Amino acid sequence: MILGVSRETQDRLQQFADLFQKWAKTINLVAPSTQEDMWQRHIADSAQIFRLADKVGTWVDLGSGGGFPGVITAILLSEYKDGWVHLVESNQKKAAFLRVALASTGARGTIHAVRIEEAPKLIPQCDFVSARALADLDKLLGYASPWLLNKPSTAFFHKGRDYESELKKAHGSWSFDLVKHQSSIQADSVILEIGNLQRT
Q1: How many domains does the structure of the chain reveal?
Q2: Which of 2, 74, 113, 171 could covalently link to 95 via disulfide, CB atoms 3.0 to 4.6 Å apart?
């Protein structure tokens, strides 16, 4: 259960969860070992990102995969009747799942079945960039730089226990403002809020 949302949104999240379980039988959407605790491990964990944003806004979700956090953000936006999520996923089978997920839940989003490097031509600007379990921070910043570099956009990246070493490596190529948010779902995880990105 996700606290603080309407019954309609809760129903949409449940609809997504049911659809996910159905598709996950034939497509590797997340690690099988994490599926049993899906509500906490994936849905509630993804919802944290949306809560950290300071406005509704337009999102770019990189490597959307099984829909975390992109579809969850798009479902939560449906409460506001505003904002949008551009989900970037080059795997055609996963992109097909994401399209069905958005259509069946009435979520506010669009699927872009292209490589991340091609996405900036289709999505020239946004307010927020998100990613979860995609790449190390240095590489993520490279992927996200078309939307963040010298722009007022903000990134929210889920990171696990090795985030300090990722930060150290990233500081070799980038400078940025950083806020570390402790995950309320997983004790050894954080959400890195990154803004004012510059190359060093």
Answers
A1: 1
A2: 113
Residues placed in the known binding site for S-adenosyl-L-methionine:
63, 68, 116-117, 132
Model confidence pLDDT, tens digit, residues 18-54: 999 888 888 766 555 455 567 777 898 899 999 999 8
DSSP classification of residue 84: E
Which tokens belong to 80? 């506001």
What residues are designated binding site? Answer: 63, 68, 116-117, 132
Is residue 105 domain-resident? yes
End-to-end CA distance of the chain: 43
154 by Cβ neighbours in 10 Å (0-12 / 13-18 / 19+) ranks as: buried
What interhelical angle do 70-77 and 45-52 show, nearest 10? Answer: 60
CA distance 192 to 186: 14
What is the model's pTM? 0.93
The CATH number of the domain holding residue 72 is: 3.40.50.150
List pLDDT tens digits, range 158-191. 998 889 999 999 999 999 999 999 988 888 899 9
- Residue 1 resides in a domain: no
